[in-house]
Design a protein that fits this description.
The complex is a heterodimer of chains A (148) and B (274). Chain A is mainly alpha-helical. Helices cover 78% and strands 0% of the residues of chain A. Chain A has seven helices and no strands. The N terminus of chain A is likely disordered. Chain B has one domain. In chain B, helix 2 runs antiparallel to helix 9 and helix 7 packs antiparallel against helix 8. The chains are: A mainly alpha (148), B mainly alpha (274). Chains A and B meet through helix 1, helix 2, helix 4 and helix 5 of A and helix 2, helix 7 and helix 8 of B.
Chain lengths: 148, 274
């Protein structure tokens, strides 16, 4: 009796797995850009004005970082602290999409973002430290994009 | 069978051996795997939300989730018999803590993913060796004593940590994004299930599937949450978690309902018993 039960359960499980695999397989094709983006980015980097990095388009993240840097330049450290959270949230939520493209580049940027977060969020943040960390972050963005 | 020997059956149900109590863990059904897979996503998004969006930071989040896990495991260990919500609450929290342990090793201590995957694999084998030596069984259907339950939860925590490390390793070393990751781990799960159907060892295939469903659940979660530019469905973490949480709550509620139907709690029994 037990066997009959488990067998029918296994049949359902197999059906589910089959459906899942099929769904994922069909869902796979629209994602082709994930793999091909690297290639096309490399090929077009000479022709296009804004080269994309191996990680893809990083402009949304870079522009927040530039924004934070500008706020720090104005001396508004409280404002910078508020704005840099947008970068943290955006960067964190895109991890699964970006990291597989170029894990080493991702770690380089992630480290630079971490140092910027640490500087801006220090108990007594110093303008110089913030400027240095953000300058380094922006240079990392540019270095990775230039690499395209 | 029950009809011909009603007294025997009920006696077995109602007077558990003092050393061998009620079974404390669920049967391995389709519902079990769906809840287990979805727990991964919900746990991870929940912890991420606390650490980043709510701004608590990793340290505070770790302490909070660790405390919650201690409470949930205490409730699970104290429960007289399998109680779906207690069991699954513990699984969600074990899932988060397992992930946090790996993240702490990788990001905090700079341990390479090759090393951590190996360490967790060896640790898991060690747990099974000790479990086997002490109990002479690794059966996941006979989790009836406190000691077996502790082995069971230790193994589960270890599989979540190992599944996280192995999944991250696949991302970094093989450039396995979530789309191909979901397909690859889904195919491995299907293969494991097929081996089980061919007569492969039930305990071994169960634990292999338990490890594989961790990166599979993470990839599936990413597939729904990630933006369309990255090949995801762009549902966002909040809606995905809400959807998964609804399914989990519904399945766990169903589990409570079917348990109640199949064998009423001893207390409810007592009144109708002659």
């Amino acid at each position: 009796m037990n066997n009959v039960h488990t067998t029918s359960r296994h049949a359902t499980l197999s059906a589910l797995l089959a459906v899942m695999t099929l769904t994922l397989a069909t869902g796979c094709s629209p994602s082709a850009p994930q793999g091909s983006k690297q290639g096309s980015a490399a090929a077009s980097s000479t022709a296009v004005a804004t080269p994309a990095s191996a990680l893809g388009d990083l402009t949304p993240f870079r522009s927040i970082a530039a924004d934070v840097a500008a706020i720090v330049d104005r001396g508004d450290l409280a404002g910078a602290k508020q704005r840099i959270k947008d970068l943290e949230v955006a960067w964190d939520s895109a991890e699964a999409g970006l990291k597989p493209r170029a894990a080493d580049d991702w770690h380089r940027l992630d480290g630079a973002i971490d140092r910027a977060l640490k500087a801006v969020r220090a108990d007594t943040p110093s303008v110089d430290d913030c400027k240095a960390a953000l300058g380094n972050l922006l240079r990392t963005f540019d270095a990775l994009s230039g690499k395209g | 069978m029950n009809a011909t020997h009603p007294v025997d059956a009920s006696a077995m149900r109602r007077t558990p051996n003092p050393r061998e109590g009620w079974i404390k863990v669920p049967a391995i059904t389709l519902s079990f795997w769906i809840i287990k897979i979805m727990c991964t996503t919900v746990g991870e998004t929940g912890a991420d939300y606390l650490a980043v969006n709510a701004g608590l930071g990793q340290t505070v989040t770790r302490a909070m989730v660790g405390t919650l896990l201690a409470i949930a495991l205490f409730m699970q260990l104290r429960a007289v018999r399998y109680t779906p919500w207690k069991y699954w609450l513990a699984v969600v929290l074990v899932s988060v803590v397992g992930t946090q342990i790996t993240d702490l090793l990788t990001d905090g201590l700079g341990v390479s993913l090759y090393l951590s995957t190996t360490i967790f694999a060896l640790l898991l084998i060690a747990i099974f060796v000790v479990w086997w030596r002490v109990e002479r069984t690794l059966s996941i259907h006979d989790i009836k004593t406190r000691r077996r339950e502790l082995f069971y939860w230790a193994a589960i925590l270890c599989t979540f940590a190992m599944g996280t490390a192995a999944g991250d390793l696949a991302t970094e070393a093989l450039h396995l994004g979530f789309v191909r990751g979901a397909i690859a781990f889904g195919a491995l799960i299907a293969l494991t299930w097929w081996l089980f159907r061919l007569g492969g060892n039930a305990v071994a295939t169960f634990w292999i599937a338990y490890i594989l469903t961790r990166p599979f659940g993470a990839a599936l979660g990413d597939l729904l949450t990630q933006a369309k530019t990255y090949g995801g469905l762009g549902m966002g973490a909040m809606w995905t978690s809400a959807l998964f949480l609804t399914v989990i709550v519904a399945l766990v509620a169903l589990e409570h309902y079917t348990l109640q139907e199949a064998s009423p709690l001893p207390a409810a029994d007592a009144t109708t018993h002659p």
